[in-house]
Write a structure and sequence with these properties.
The chain has 118 residues and is an alpha+beta fold. 17% of the residues lie in helices and 29% in strands. It has two helices and five strands, in the order βαββββα. A five-stranded mixed beta sheet has the order 4-3-2-1-5. β2 and β3 form a beta hairpin. The longest helix is centred in the N-terminal third of the chain and has 12 residues. The chain is globular, with a radius of gyration of 17 Å. The N and C termini lie far apart (58 Å).
């Protein structure tokens, strides 16, 4: 089965590292017990794996059962937030940025205006 990344109503990104060996049941426990999120509401859950920044797992309920997705980039890497105890909801645009190796949560720096610079 092929999952369209943009079909889910919600896309959640788990920012900390997840054990590469975790399967569907273990990832479902992380979602429900650690974050209190609903598994069956057309949501895609993304988990960063290891420290090499080039692969992740996804968990998705398709209405009949869970689908586990595994994505590995052969060239390039992901820019994944690293706050271990955080889950963030992504928009479709942010998901596109992530899948293209860009930071889905870019930081904006605002320069202070100095008198006489205008």
């Amino acid at each position: 089965m092929l999952v369209n990344w943009h079909d889910p109503d919600h896309i959640y990104l788990f920012c900390g590292k997840t054990d590469l060996l975790k399967g569907i049941d273990d990832l479902a426990i992380v979602v429900t017990e650690n974050y209190g999120l609903e598994l069956y509401n057309n949501s895609l859950f993304l988990f960063f794996l290891g420290g090499r920044n080039h692969h992740f797992k996804g968990l998705f309920w398709d209405g009949e059962g869970f689908v586990m997705l595994y994505k590995r980039f052969e060239n390039g890497h992901l820019s994944w937030p690293r706050n271990n105890n955080e889950a963030k909801e992504l928009s479709s645009q942010q998901l596109d940025w992530l899948l293209h190796g860009l930071n889905p949560f870019p930081t904006r720096k605002i320069m202070a205006a100095h008198p006489g610079t205008f």
